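Re: the 232-residue chain
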Amino acid sequence: MDRDLDPAFTQAVGEAPWKLFTKDWKNVLSAQQTMHARQGGPIAFAMDKLQKVFGDRLNLRSIESRLVLPYRVLGEVVQPGCMPSPNTLKSLLYRLQEVAWRKDLLDLDRRARTCILTAAQEAMRLQPVFESSTFFEGDVLTVRGLGMVNVGLVADDWRVRARYVKALARVMELWSPRLWLDVAATARQDRMSYKVFEWLEQQVAIFYCRMLQHELGRRAIAPPRRSNYDPR
């Protein structure tokens, strides 16, 4: 990128934002070092450029004043300069992974399905894939709950899990290319043994991963299970 810059321009701007190294960008995200960065350095230069881009919409001093106040994360009050508790961090990670998995499914469905739907129809089509208590009606991307109990596609009881695997298979039947016929036929069965379900679950997962990679070039993010690891 630097080779494409006019030498006179490069000399004039000095240490530009694209000259920041990884540690510098970490400092940009660290409020104390960012707000009081050494003048003439790359961080101060980057902040000045950001201020010019956003203008009055970005009040750095107001942001700085708020950073010395306690903040609330998922109901927990956290003191400035401190991280939330491990339990809250687990909840945040759970929600982040859940949103990422749902967004991938939504994007893939929009790319691969063979019918045109309104936003409301689209939400209705995907809702059966998720446990109803984990989203608001009509908006599957809004995650409810903290993952304290494994539900939906990660339910501990395979009989419960089967309902959601079948729902995902029904979604895939309207994709192009569509879900393999033998898998789709198995998903339509009312009753099945655990061995048959295990095969069905595996085939649906394989098809989803292949479609996601082929259509969107993404590696699959699995529906999350909340971590039970306790760092203490």
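The first helix runs from residue 7 to 13.
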